[in-house]
Amino acid sequence: MARSVVKNLFLIAIIVFIALVLTAGGVLYFNLFNSRDIVTTFIVEKTEGLPIVGEFFVKTFGTTEEVISKAEAELMKLEEEKKKIEEEWKIINQRTSELDKREQDILKKEEEIKKKEQEVAELKKNLEIQLENVEQLATLYNEIKPSKVVEIFNNLDDELIIQIIQKMNRNHVAEILGGMDPKRVADITRKMSQN
Q1: Which of 52, 74, 126, 132 fits a 20 to 30 Å CA distance from 168?
Q2: What is the largest CA-CA distance in the chain?
Q3: pLDDT per residue over 138-181, tens digit each?
Q4: Where are the bilayer-spanning segments (predicted)?
């Protein structure tokens, strides 16, 4: 009979020991995964009335009210952090959309610059062609008698005449201008001085 009592006490001790190990393991497990407050509250509530185990958990974690107030304080702290993070995300999203808008503006301006560069390149090409044509005309008119050139110039506009005579031989130009209407020569001279 004494053996069976010792055996029963030994089994009870083993069961209590296993229960404590499982409880401690559970506390550690849930502590690692931030579920500590829920588990702690549950354990403290269930074990508060037990003589040895209850005292251990109350000493370790506090009373149910203390655990709940700690959990509420932690929850409030987490809510504040959540609000801060939401505000930061709001600012980040705002800045991101501003940056996107600026990027679109930059891309638009780059496109405009490319168009302007193409226009400038085309104008430059046209001017080079026009200059080459004027030089060819000047060379040609240098070979023609001044009286014939005067007849041709009487049918051209002043701007073209100015471009051509600037590329011609000076002596030949003097003879041509001498044969033209003095009023027209005065207009051409005035326009040349303004360029």
Answers
A1: 126
A2: 153
A3: 999 999 999 999 999 999 999 999 999 999 999 899 999 999 99
A4: 9-30
